[in-house]
């Protein structure tokens, strides 16, 4: 591993446990589709990406969901299901980050939207307050794995790409970060994060 001067973490799936099946189960009673059909139909499409870049508001994205998932529901009901994705903090990861933060600046970069931001800001304060700064795709106007997203963050942090160690549970984002020059850790369990942090030089 090369010299590391800053750590950058994804949130969902790395610091906060997520489960998208919870979203679909909340939507099933308000949809004409079964859970199995919802799971087969939902995908992270262009509207989803535009929502995460802040290019469209929640109302427009929820109207899109209402149409193609056949939801007979208000925006509030759709949002309640949307926010069910968050399960719990991962306390061992937060503890490891808190310990290493005494030596290295720790940042987070999340592909998210204002609805999710409001939910985890109030529901998961330990995660929200556990970083020197959190970069949010809908504020930046760019999202992982876009190269310009990583360029914007490294410029803000003031650390060279190759001196940032990035943790993410989505391989597409890991690939984008590597191509941008960051060091990476592909996270598949909390232990993946903790073991790397414990063994940092």
Short structural summary:
With 201 residues, this protein is an alpha/beta fold. It is built from twelve helices and seven strands. The chain folds into two domains: 6-18 and 87-198, HAD superfamily/HAD-like (Rossmann fold, 3-Layer(aba) Sandwich); 20-85, Orthogonal Bundle (DNA polymerase, domain 1).
Question: Main traits of this protein?
Answer:
201 residues; alpha/beta; Rossmann fold; DNA polymerase, domain 1; five-stranded parallel β-sheet; two-stranded antiparallel sheet; 12 helices; 7 strands; 49% helix
Model description:
The protein has 201 residues and is of the alpha/beta class. It folds into two domains: 6-18 and 87-198, Rossmann fold; 20-85, Putative phosphatase, domain 2 (DNA polymerase, domain 1, Orthogonal Bundle). It is 49% helix and 14% strand. It has twelve helices and seven strands. It has helices at residues 20-27, 35-41, 46-52, 58-68, 75-82, 91-100, 114-123, 125-128, 137-140, 147-157, 171-180, 190-198; strands spanning 6-9, 16-18, 86-89, 106-110, 133-136, 164-168, 183-186. The strands form two sheets. The protein has a five-stranded parallel beta sheet with strand order 5-4-1-6-7, with helices on both faces. A two-stranded antiparallel ribbon has the order 2-3. Helix 1 runs antiparallel to helix 5 and helix 6 (91-100) packs parallel to helix 12. It is globular, with a radius of gyration of 17 Å.
